[in-house]
Amino acid sequence: MAEAKWYVAHTYSGYENKVKANIEKTVTNRHLEEQILEVRVPMQDVMEVKNGKSKSVSKKMFPGYVLINMIMNDDTWYVVRNTRGVTGFVGPGSKPVPLSDIEMRSLGIMTDVSNIQIDFDKGDTVTVLAGAWKDTVGVIQSMNMNKKTVTITVELFGRETPVEVSFADVRKM
């Protein structure tokens, strides 16, 4: 079976989250969970000053683009390419080019997580080691062994918020 790689889909500006939701819905409806593993809209926290007050705001790292971890074949290409809001894949002509491991690591996304030994479980408190949530402490709510991610709750603006993080990016406290 082919290996899943990260691809970049170009979207209409402002439609990134809608495209992400639509792809995830189609994946569920067509039972493609084993082929399209993850869809991300990379975000970064930025300090914004308005009316003399500074606050932390999440902004898209790449407006107009969505990252997709998938096994490229005719079915997955068709699903992504024909999602409302997607204008195409990044690559020459109609041939999508996967991102390299180095490019993904620079975004804070670990790609080679096949040999990770985990020493945490649901309910454990962990610290995030890399990515947008670096140095954040959270409690594991769920674990996805296929995607090799944990969903933790973090306090954001006074509210408990679920965040998905790679196994490689967390350490048990």
Structure keywords:
four-stranded antiparallel sheet; about 170 residues; alpha+beta; 2 domains; Alpha-Beta Plaits
Outline the structure in words.
With 173 residues, the chain is of the alpha+beta class. It folds into two domains: 102 residues, Alpha-Beta Plaits; 48 residues, SH3 type barrels (Roll). The protein is built from three helices and eleven strands. It has a five-stranded antiparallel sheet, with no helix packed on it. It has a four-stranded antiparallel sheet with strand order 2-5-1-6, covered by helices on one side. A two-stranded antiparallel sheet has the order 3-4. The termini are far apart.
Model regions low in confidence, pLDDT < 50 over at least 5 residues? none
Q: Output the CATH topology of the largest domain.
A: Alpha-Beta Plaits
Described by its quaternary structure, the protein is single chain
- DSSP strand count: 11
The arrangement of helices and strands along the chain is: EHEEEEHEHEEEEE
Radius of gyration: 17 Å
Helix content: 10-25%
Mean pLDDT: 84
Q: How many individual domains?
A: 2
Structural class of the secondary elements?
A: alpha+beta
How far apart the termini lie comes to 37 Å
- The CATH architecture name of the largest domain reads 2-Layer Sandwich
Strand residues, percent? 35-45%
Specify the CATH homologous superfamily of the largest domain: NusG, N-terminal domain
